[in-house]
Amino acid sequence: MINYIIENKEQLFGVVTAVIAAASAIAALTPTPKDDTFVGKAYKVINWLALNIFNAKS
Asked: Is residue 20 within 8 Å of residue 49, measured between CB atoms?
């Protein structure tokens, strides 16, 4: 597993960067839903993937 990560670090970095960028765009473009709905829970996951933590809420 470690060897795979070391050998493919450029590709993995690209994937991680793309996930963060996509989650940031989704979080910025969608209104904040109620927390008790499924969409609200999914929105929390998207914010986490977008690295929106502390005061960086959209």
From this structure: yes
